[in-house]
Write a structure and sequence with these properties.
heterodimer, A: 383 residues, mainly beta, 13-stranded mixed sheet, 23 strands, B: 113 residues, 6-stranded antiparallel barrel
């Protein structure tokens, strides 16, 4: 009889086994009172979420655990030293479980204030004035009106509310009105849709951030994750079905008789099959009255349909790769950061990728068993 | 700090062994091997765990049997690092009919509420 070695997914890899022993922990406060007993905690941030989310499971409700109590959460794998706050926000939901007895404190990030603040001003609020205002100024004004201010207290720090710098509203002032009854977050979303990739979201360190988000990762990853070293599980999907290689943008109608301003951009895609040798185009429509001009060369300030079409095309005319993975590491990573995912031997391996990605969503978790992990959802695009 | 478990008006003194250090926290170690490699992450949980197993020294078999009514009861557990509302949910059994003489160490499990 010949002995047969069993090789499977649990077979040891090459090299010397290495163990990383840690004692994960947390620093969580509710209404400034530190929690001494929790079962588990999870924090989710992402510009797809906008409003950050957190759930803390505790044994019983205590006096300070009330709706809109301010919560700060710091989760770490080894030491709290040097680890910045993972989340700040308010309790907005409380879930009770009979057995095993537990209470879930469901928390919403800072932007929940903008989501629940509906403009009370009759006939709306003019945010641009007679001379227009930049998009970052407009977003800042809305955040301030929602009680989210710069400096101490819930809000943002100087410089984190970025923008295109383009003066908006000089032509279409009435379109930039913050309508009566419209939530602050809905207004910001309406603006972000046309601001050439700028997105507003709850970030780490208990801050609101507005920064440029692109499907094209930057050259310098903030962290590199490698199969066999620090990736516990993961999946990758590559798809070409979402490619849009022609973008048609319709903007503001200046009332000069020519109809709404419009522009389009297109580009051949290497991933869309030709038909009888002819390149094919799949269109995406973008329409917003906040886009005030047709061409970038047209006179006056404001975003142009041409700028929006050109930017949107760089994002949509790509084969998209989405990787979701779990790592035990506790690097502080923000939505919009670039990271690298590597195969074990320096080439694409089990996950099929060996490249840089931009981070769409981060989930940071301390489980009931005391294990720390992060789940990252990452996107990348290839022309 | 003297350890005890108080149920109603009854106080059960607990002589926790190992110099007051818990023998183990239940379900508190997570071992994760990274697929395709040789690295293993071992996370040792602590304050998130709510199940507590104590090694308790009973000076005699009868003292151990005297603790049995506390099993299944909710009370106040005072132990090395604090005071908890706890359910005593299990205790290592002594064999019935077998005389146990002298000191004996048994495992008593609590669920911290």
């Amino acid at each position: 009889m010949t002995a047969t070695g069993i090789v499977g997914p649990n077979a040891p890899g090459a090299g010397s086994p290495t163990s990383v022993v840690r004692s994960p922990g947390y620093l969580i406060t509710v209404a400034t009172v530190p929690l001494t007993e929790i079962f588990s905690a999870r924090v989710s941030l992402g510009f797809d979420l906008q409003v950050g989310q957190a759930v803390v499971q505790v044994p019983v409700l205590t006096a300070q655990m009330v709706m809109w109590a301010y919560v700060t959460i710091k989760l770490y794998a080894s030491t709290a030293v040097g680890v910045i706050t993972s989340f700040e926000g308010w309790i907005t939901e409380i879930d009770y479980t009979l057995w095993p007895r537990s209470v879930g404190l469901v928390c919403s990030g800072l932007l929940i204030r903008a989501d629940t603040k509906h403009n009370p001003a009759v006939a709306g609020t003019d945010l641009v004035g007679a001379n227009g205002a930049t998009d970052q100024s407009i977003v800042t004004a809305v955040l301030n009106a929602c009680g989210l201010v710069m400096g101490a207290g819930p809000g943002y720090v100087n410089g984190t509310i970025g923008g295109t710098g383009v003066t908006l509203g000089a032509f279409a002032r009435q379109n930039f009105l913050w309508a009566e009854g419209e939530s602050g977050l809905a207004y910001i979303q309406r603006l972000d849709e046309v601001c050439l990739g700028y997105r507003t979201f709850d970030d780490v360190a208990g801050q609101i951030n507005r920064k440029l988000i692109s499907v094209v990762p930057t050259a310098s990853p903030v962290a590199t994750f490698t199969e066999g070293l620090d990736i516990e599980s993961g999946t990758t999907q590559e798809t070409v079905t979402a490619i849009r290689n022609r973008v048609v943008v319709t903007g503001y109608d200046q009332g000069l008789g020519g109809g709404p301003s419009t522009s389009s951009a297109q580009q051949i895609s290497n991933f869309i099959p030709t038909v009888f040798g002819a390149a094919q185009y799949v269109s995406q429509q973008v329409s917003s009255p906040l886009i005030e001009r047709a061409l970038a060369a047209d006179p006056g300030p404001g975003l142009s349909c041409e700028d929006v079409a050109t930017y949107t095309l760089t994002q949509t005319n790509r084969k998209q790769t989405k990787t979701t993975f779990v790592t035990p590491r506790d690097d502080v990573i923000s939505p919009g950061d670039t990271i690298a995912i590597h195969g074990a031997a320096g080439v694409a391996d089990r996950l099929g990728v060996h490249t840089t990605f931009w981070v769409q969503n981060i989930e940071r978790e301390l489980t009931e068993k005391g294990a720390f992990s992060q789940t990252l959802t990452c996107l990348s695009g290839v022309v | 700090m003297a350890s005890s478990f108080v149920v109603g008006g009854t106080t059960y003194p607990l002589l926790v062994t190992a110099d007051g250090v818990p023998k183990k926290f239940a379900a508190d170690i997570s071992v994760r091997k990274m697929p395709g490699g040789t690295v293993t992450y071992i996370d040792i949980g602590g304050p998130t765990v709510h199940e507590l197993s104590l090694s308790v020294l009973f000076l005699s078999g009868s003292a151990a049997l005297a603790f049995e009514p506390a099993v299944g009861q909710v009370g106040t557990l005072t132990v090395f690092d604090g005071t908890y509302s706890a359910l005593c949910r299990d205790m290592q059994r002594l064999s019935r009919g077998v005389a146990v003489s002298g000191p004996t160490v048994l495992t008593v499990e609590f669920l911290l509420l």
